[in-house]
Amino acid sequence: MKSARAIKIITWLSVGIVAFAAIAWLGLGRISGAISRVNVFDNLKNRPERASSAVNYLVVGSDTREGLTPAELKLLRVGSVKSAAGARSDTMMLVHISKSRDNAVIVSLPRDSLVTIPAHIGQDGKTQVAEMQGKLNAAFAWGGASLLIQTLEAKMNLRIDHYVEVNFAGFKNVVDALGGIQVCTKKDINDPKSHLVLAAGIHTLDGIESLKYVRTRDFDGMGDLGRMQRQQQFVSAIFRKATSSGTLLNPFKVKNLISAAFKTVKTDETLNQSDIVTLAKQIRNLTPGKMRTMTVPLGNSNGFAPGLGSVVIWDETLAPELFDRLRNDRPVVDLITPTPTSSDAKGNKGNKGKRSPTPTPSPSIIDKFKTRTASENPCGALK
Q1: Which domain covers residue 342, as residue numbers?
Q2: pTM for this one?
Q3: pLDDT digits 0-9 by tens, 197-252
Q4: Based on the domain organization, do 350 and 286 belong to the same domain?
Q5: 3-state per-residue secondary structure call for the chain
Q6: Report for 62-66, 77-81, 178-182: range of highest mean pLDDT
Q7: Domains identified in the chain, total number
């Protein structure tokens, strides 16, 4: 259970890492660490067609502890490297970057989502396993990244272009390379499970304390929902700081951060250096206000499936609409501009009978998917 909490951290952090590293790489010209590669797409068949030049990344957190010192493991209470042998994942996110490269949407995909896992070869490499219902994290456990991608593409009817896998061993170094991350809590936190103690207010947390912060779930009565919202706010804070002038104009900080970032990731074999450099050039206009985070729309967060137990069920109407919008690269929020009335067109009579111009009505925002932007105040009300 402790390791499952830590995995969620890395998944959220990795989005900030990937976005920042792409931007910073452009200014640095190179990175000092090699990126590990994993083959995930070669054997996939009957994939959804690509409907636009937008790019979709699947970001997955992997539970490994290599690189953490014994003292850090003790502080985090996450167990030893030996006790966590074998990578596991229970948190996944879809990152959509618009074809104009100036907007991004990050969708959290709960690990217990009820999905149909396609027929596949079993873990023994021989047995043919029939299609079945299961939880999303089971697809990764049984068939790795390839089966996970195949499962999600069928569920979403959306093509995944690239895969990024991140372990949480480099989390501390990345946060520390940024000089810490500022968070805000409206309540005192004293969580015996994450071992975090914070007074209400604003705090700048180092890597160890940040890891505790995004693991905490037992102090406000909101459980996993509250923790997920804090994680979304945290990755937004990472993005704001990583793309600030104080970071981008400091070559030593940029170099250290990129080195730490790329030591924590694996990517698919098709994502090469040229792709990242090109992406870096394209997303320079991606500001915090144009990055939206959200959870896939849920119909029942406490569902039940025979043989599986507790499951998360996606909303049958809103989830397909969300992925249709992403597939066709349409905005996930709607701007509605009121139509001027006849009286508005005539204006209002002012002094001496003259009509003064009527102000143009402000557009209203319809946000049916309950998103938030990376520029929002972390102390603002949680949706």
Answers
A1: 335-365
A2: 0.79
A3: 999 888 999 988 887 887 787 777 766 667 777 877 887 788 788 777 676 667 77
A4: no
A5: CHHHHHHHHHHHHHHHHHHHHHHHHHHHCCCCCCCEEECCCCCCCCCCCCCCCCEEEEEEEECCCCCCCHHHHHHHCCCCCHHHCCCCCCEEEEEEECCCCCCEEEEEEECCEEEEECCEECCCCCCEECCEEEEHHHHHHHHHHHHHHHHHHHHHCCCCCEEEEEECCCHHHHHHHCCCEEEEECCCEEECCCCEEECCEEEEECHHHHHHHHHCCCCCCCHHHHHHHHHHHHHHHHHHHHCCHHHHCCHHHHHHHHHHHHCCEEEECCCCHHHHHHHHHHHHHCCHHHEEEEECCEEEEEEEECCCEEEEEECCCHHHHHHHHHHCCCCCCEEECCCCCHHHHHCEECHHHCEECCCCCCCEEECCCCCEECCCCCCCCCC
A6: 178-182
A7: 2
Residue 77 lies in a domain: yes
| 54, β-bridge pairs | none
In a domain, residue 382? The reply is no
Report the alpha-carbon distance of residue 303 to residue 287 in Å, rounded.
Answer: 37
| Claim to verify: residue 111 and residue 193 sit in the same structural domain | yes
pLDDT at 25 over 60: no
The reply to whether 180 and 302 lie within a common domain is yes
